[in-house]
Every structure is written in C-alpha cells, then in structure tokens.
Amino acid sequence: MVEERAYWLAWTRISGVGPVLLRRLHQHFGTLATAWNATKAQLGEVEGFGFQTLEKVVEQRSRLQPEQLLIEHQEENPHFWTPADADYPRLLLETPSPPPILYYRGEVELVENLGQKPMVGIVGTRRPSEYGLRWTRQISTALAKNGFTVVSGMAEGIDTESHLATMKAGGRTIAVLGTGVDVIYPPKNRDLYKQILSQGLVVSEYRAKTPPDRTHFPRRNRIIAGLSRAVLVMEAPVRSGALITASYANEFGRDVYALPGRIDDYPSQGCLKLLNQGASFVLRELDELLKMLGAIPKIDTIDTAPIPEQIKLPDLLPELQQVMDAIACDVLSFDYLVQKTGMNTGSVSSALLQLELMGLVSQLPGMRYQKC
Fold it and tell me: How far apart are CA 4 and CA 25, in angstroms?
C-alpha cells in the first residue's frame, strides 16, 4: 500500500499527466507501480499518451525515486489520501477525474468517506441577496439537523453562509479549497477556517503552501460535486462558478437543485437557467426537500419491522458469484468493483448486466451498484 501511494504521488510530478490520464493508466496496468516500470511502447497503448507525453514520461521519471519522494513529501504534507487508500472518499473515486492526491486537515469521519453518511453540496454567488442568504441558512440548518454533511467552497457569500449555518446547528461541514489546505482564502475567513477544522474537514488537491490561483477554483468545483450526493445552487448569475459545479454534478450523475427567483433578479439568472434545463426546485417545504434528498429518519422514529426471511440465491457462474461476493452489503462503484475483483472491465460489466437481469443487483446513479 505504501509503495502504491508513492507511485500515485510520483506520477503527479510528470508534466502533462493529469487525473484523467492517471485513471486510464491505473485501469490499463492495474497498479501505478506497474505503469511506472512500463516501457515506452507499453505506455503508448494507453489512450491519451501521445508522442510528446511519452517523451516527458521517459525523461522525467528517470529523475524521480517514488519511495524517497513520498518520505520527503510527507514532511510538509502529513495528511493526504490517494486512490490506493481504502479511506479515499468513495463517491469522489467513482468520478472520471478524481484527484490523485487529496490533502486534508480537520476531523475525519470514515462514514463520510465510505459513502455511508449523506453529503450535500451548497454553492452560489459571492454577492448574494438577503433572500439567498436567508434560504441558505434555513436549508443548511435543516440539513445539519437531519444528519447531512454540507460541502461547500469557503468562498464569500453563499459558501460562507452555508458553512456557518451548518456548524451553528451542530452539523458537520467540509470546505473544498482552491489553495493548499494550510492557506486561508479569502483571508477574512480565518475564523471560519479555524471553526471548520474543529467541526469538520478542509480538503484540497493542492499541496501545502499553494497560493490562490484563478485557474484552481473552477477545478476544485468538480471535487465539491464529486463528494456530494446532490448539489444545491442557491443563487448564481449566469457566469457564476456555481454553474460549473452544477455541470460537474450532472456529469457525475448527481441530483441538481436550484433556488427559484424573480426573472429580473440578476443573482437568480443562473438558477433560472438550471431550472429551465431540468434541475429540481429547492422547495419551500423543507420536509419535502429533505425527503427528496433521501433524509434518513432518526432511529427513535423508525417503526420496528419483521426481518424478512433470507432468500436463497440461485447457483451462479464463477465470475457472477465473484462480483456478488465483492458487492456484499456495500454500495460500490464500478471502478472499485473492477479493483476489488481483479477482473477486467469487460467481464465485470457483463457480469453486472446479467445480475441486473436476474434481479440480484441494481444500479444507482454514478455507476454504483448494490444487491437487491
């Protein structure tokens, strides 16, 4: 495991090799350690590795020692996950471009990483109206009191309000930064940052001491969408970065909600556009919204029901049984199933299709699978 972490880190130091190419490398070779030792010809078999990229890989990897790089990197960046780590956030891992390195500070809750606690993204404009702020407070508070973790970007405006309201209601929040996890931006949110560290988590794909950069913030929006089961856009002009988050959410198979506003209100133009494109309304009845988001009732309100009799599964072909055993009681992403079974993607895809037709497995949004 330590060795594979070292190679995830080493590959990020090769210019021209980003999250998408790393995902393809991992799928093709099985491990990034194997990919690191592959020949130029073998690397050329991977889609996206053109002549210039191959030349950079051959030249740059000869100057890197992955194990030593990991030791040195951990001195300034002690807390981070790679896709080789079992506690890397599963919902994020199933997206097309998960960060190869995800740094964090604060209080980790593994139930969030394993996808067993619902997380909802709340995003919006940096210059909200009182209407947008009021509804952000109400919805963040309701989510916190019903066991959701609220994910946002710690920017001014809607982001800040969602973090504050969540924590005031006693809930957990995750801030996804466009800087290193030790760099506070905007600086005025220093107190908010400290509070999040004590009541939640700060994450980033950028190493320690990385300053703010205008190109980082649109990219970090895919992490907000990837961590969340649904994304709520509270107020957003047409050119707002919140719409980038909504676009990623659609791409990842997440639900998108938008707060309706008046057609002549500038901060609502982006939300109206989303609603016109098929986003769901943020409803006035918060109970109905929570129901739509899949809120789990408190234990003391759940009626006791008899446990159904165990159903005997039919005899399955070995490859089908292998996939069934891998799913067990969890909800797993397609890529994680490939990794867990050791089978190739075609075989896993075929097995899942057959199991779905047999009524034994069902597919969830984002190419996730569970037993029926």
Answer: 13
Q: What gap in Å lies between CA 344 and CA 327, rounded to an integer?
A: 16
Element (H, E) at 141: helix 130-145
**Contact yes or no for 227/102 (Cβ under 8 A):** no
Sheet holding 361-364, edge to edge: 332-333, 368-371, 361-364
> How is residue 267 annotated by DSSP?
G
| Burial class of residue 156 (count of CB atoms within 10 Å of its CB; 0-12, 13-18, 19+) | middle
| pLDDT tier for residue 232 given thresholds of 50, 70 and 90 | very high
Peptide bond just before 186 cis, omega within 30 deg: yes
pLDDT range class, residue 41, cuts 50, 70, 90: very high
Which tokens is 253 given? 């198979």
Radius of gyration of the chain from Cα atoms? 22
The residue count for the chain: 372
Instruction: Please check whether residue 147 is in contact with residue 118, taking contact to mean a CB–CB distance below 8 angstroms.
Output: yes
Q: What residues are paired with 104 via a beta bridge?
A: 203
Average pLDDT, stretch 181-196? 97
Let me know: does 333 contact 366? Beta carbons within 8 Å. Answer: yes
Would you tell me how many other CB atoms lie within 10 Å of the CB of residue 38?
16
For 252, the token pair is: 């990842």
Comparing C-alpha atoms, which of 137, 149, 270 is closest to residue 203?
A: 149
Give residue 362's identity as a one-letter amino acid code.
Answer: S
CA-to-CA dists, residue 99 to 18, 207, 230, 315, 319, angstroms = 9, 12, 19, 40, 31
- Cα–Cα distance between 191 and 178 in angstroms, integer? 18
pLDDT tens profile 152-162: 999 999 999 99
**pLDDT of 344 strictly over 90:** no
> pTM for the complete prediction?
0.78
User: What's the rounded mean pLDDT across residues 226-239?
Assistant: 94
The DSSP bridge pattern shows strands 102-106 and 80-81 to be: antiparallel
Residues 177, 202: contact at Cβ < 8 Å? yes
Say which residues have a Cβ less than 8 Å from residue 154's Cβ, sequence separation at least 6.
160, 163, 175, 176, 177, 185, 189, 192, 193, 196, 202
pLDDT tens readout for residues 297-343: 332 333 333 333 344 556 788 888 888 888 865 567 777 777 778 88
| Structure token pair of residue 322 | 């292998």
